[in-house]
């Protein structure tokens, strides 16, 4: 499974970078979403991918039965997903606000510090 | 003792408070600090005279080899006494000179800070500690030169002084680091004890050149001499203190301090004696072109600094004794003369010596002080300056290399200096009475005491040379030489070559003084040539720096975000790609174990991402991003991460709602780039994607460390009492991270609310002036 995931992550990164390089600010937002998802997947797969063995401990036992998926990347990604959403919300509102003031959706027209 | 010295910084901080209490008398109150230190240092004189070296150890940053250890030997004691004694008088003097000045508080703060820095510089034993104090003196000097900051010239001169000395400071730092590496020690006293190792070391030449650059810029040696006369834009007490008696001698101090460890080589002798002699002549020659009394004195200081460097370069025992003597003599008479110049400026309203004349009856005490100090500068017996000059001529005569050149330059400088002494000491006070902008009268006592004491010392030490000779100067010269010597100074050396040279230079100098106006007129013809001097080089360099930074800012900081991102991505591809492809063979495992439904999910994920990039409709972009997000959630669930799947599902839903709500208030997708740009971006993004794929594939094969998650799995129930290990990690093992995450989210939420509120405010304001908002939905 990992090689396929590697290709998928690479594609996500490529798509994200392509979108961030656009001049339209709306496309920039899409690029941000793609980028954070790509990073999350990258971290998630870094410890290998395990099927059907969630890191849970059954009732009455003090350790999981058999090997389970590595819980650490999962915890890190969980944090990352939420943070990425916070950043996205902030960026979207910021871009909306910038558009209101500059009245241009072209990033090249936002290069002056005074409007 | 360290604390006593450093408490000066605290005192500087309290200066504003003292001003509130003592008003105009603050200068006197503050002068108690250097006076007390001076007394303490005087108390050390007997011990140091007996050849003792006091080491006051104090660690600062032991791990970096930085200590606050102070070492008091003859050299540092001589400097410390100069700094504290002259400092005391300068503070008293400044109280009169800057009386009623609105920024007197600022002056006190900075000059105290300078005093402490300078003391630290001469007392510190650690290389790096000394460097810190060195830079502090540069900064305080900058603040003092630019004291009258409303004046354009003062600001310009302050910047020039700072740039020159700080550029030298950079070289000095490199030199000190190399010195530390070469000697394996960061202590000056230890380094001086291993001179043979240092002189043979491979790093000797580069480290010496760096150290010399630092010392030469600080001590205004040719071709860096130009900043010092410009520094005369500072108030006169500053000129008297920093720019003649103390700070400009820091470079000289460094050279003298390192002489036992580094001196005596061909390179040392050659560079120091020639540069010193050139500086000596340049200073004396440029001095007589000026009529501004402070510039005259400043150039004669350049001459003195050159003399000191030259004597260090010659390096014989006699030369080093002459060095210590000249150092003391110069500080005494030049400090006095600068303060006299300040009195003249203060009382007559002009700095131009040609505009003054016949002032003696109006200000008899000043005239007497000026005369004594000027005679010492000229080297007329029985003043201390005479002894110093005799010794200087003697050592020049015994110079090994470049003797003819040095001798010629030294003699010319001597008679030019005598002319300068006459111009400063005689011209304003004798001859025909001239009208000055202000009606002159005698200066207040606070301004007279400093120059008077210094002038009397010049006379006293000249009459009883043994007092200084057997005392401090023996110890100072011994410290420079590195082994004990006996100094016996005397006024009368018999009729010998130095005496004849003195007499000849006196005659020539006086003749030059008589014809000064004529000579100056002739020399004015050289002005176009002078305009091409080192200062023009400095100006050209500074202009070049501005041009280059302007050019590179235009290129790098061009304001186009995609260019920045492009640079970052390309750098990433370059660096990571380089080490991945060249250092590790990228491992590509084709062991693929997949199931059909997984491929479908991942395929949807990839298709969603790709479709979002090509679609021209915002709605389909949002939908395809949503499909990608939900596919990722499915992937998480399929691969043993139910918590992630749930979170992703929630967040993805929120994202889609957010995008639908906000994005549709934004314009439609515009097609702004040309096909060529698009192809370029596809290539860049594509290479980044391929690189990441290779990186991920390679990274799986590498296990650098044992995973730490084993501990977390084993202890989840026993220690943290939780069965969902991911949750336990978040709220227990990495609870602080989660707290940080909560803060980030709260901040983002506050930001969002603030921006939305701002918008509402705008709308309320717009109601007054109705204007149709472009709405696009």
Descriptive account of the structure:
Chain B: Residues 124-407 form the NADH:quinone oxidoreductase/Mrp antiporter transmembrane domain. Chain B: Residues 677-757 form the MrpA C-terminal/MbhE domain. Chain B: Residues 604-668 form the MrpA C-terminal/MbhD domain. Chain B: It is found in: Cell membrane; Membrane. The complex is a heterodimer of chains A (115) and B (777). By secondary structure, chain A is mostly helical. Chain A has helices at residues 2-20, 25-46, 71-102. In chain A, 56% of the residues are buried. The mean pLDDT of chain A is 86. In chain B, strand 2 and strand 3 form a beta hairpin. Chain B has helices at residues 2-22, 26-49, 74-97, 104-123, 127-145, 152-183, 188-192, 195-200, 204-218, 227-230, 236-245, 250-262, 266-287, 293-314, 317-348, 364-378, 384-397, 403-425, 445-463, 465-481, 497-514, 516-523, 527-530, 534-556, 561-583, 596-614, 618-638, 642-663, 675-700, 709-715, 725-733, 735-766, and strands at 54-56, 59-61, 66-67, 70-72. Chain B is mainly α and 777 residues long. Helix content of chain B is 73%, strand content 1%. In chain B, the strands form two sheets. Chain B has a two-stranded antiparallel ribbon. A two-stranded antiparallel sheet of chain B has the order 2-3. In chain B, helix 19 (445-463) crosses helix 20 and helix 27 (618-638) packs antiparallel against helix 28 (642-663). The longest helix of chain B is centred in the first third of the chain and has 32 residues, at 152-183. The interface between A and B is large, with 91 and 102 residues.
Features:
heterodimer, A: 115 residues, mainly alpha, 63% helix, 0% strand, elongated, B: 777 residues, two-stranded antiparallel ribbon, 32 helices, 4 strands, 73% helix, 1% strand
Question: Helix and strand layout, with pairings?
Answer:
The complex is a heterodimer of chains A (115) and B (777).
Chain A: H1 2-20, H2 25-46, H3 71-102
Chain B: H1 2-22, H2 26-49, E1 54-56, E2 59-61, E3 66-67, E4 70-72, H3 74-97, H4 104-123, H5 127-145, H6 152-183, H7 188-192, H8 195-200, H9 204-218, H10 227-230, H11 236-245, H12 250-262, H13 266-287, H14 293-314, H15 317-348, H16 364-378, H17 384-397, H18 403-425, H19 445-463, H20 465-481, H21 497-514, H22 516-523, H23 527-530, H24 534-556, H25 561-583, H26 596-614, H27 618-638, H28 642-663, H29 675-700, H30 709-715, H31 725-733, H32 735-766
Antiparallel strand pairs in B: 1-4, 2-3
Helix pairs in contact in B: 1-2, 1-4, 2-3, 2-20, 3-4, 3-11, 3-15, 3-19, 3-20, 4-5, 5-6, 6-9, 9-12, 11-15, 12-14, 13-14, 13-18, 14-15, 14-18, 15-16, 15-17, 15-19, 15-20, 16-18, 16-19, 17-18, 17-19, 17-21, 18-21, 19-20, 25-29, 26-27, 27-28, 31-32
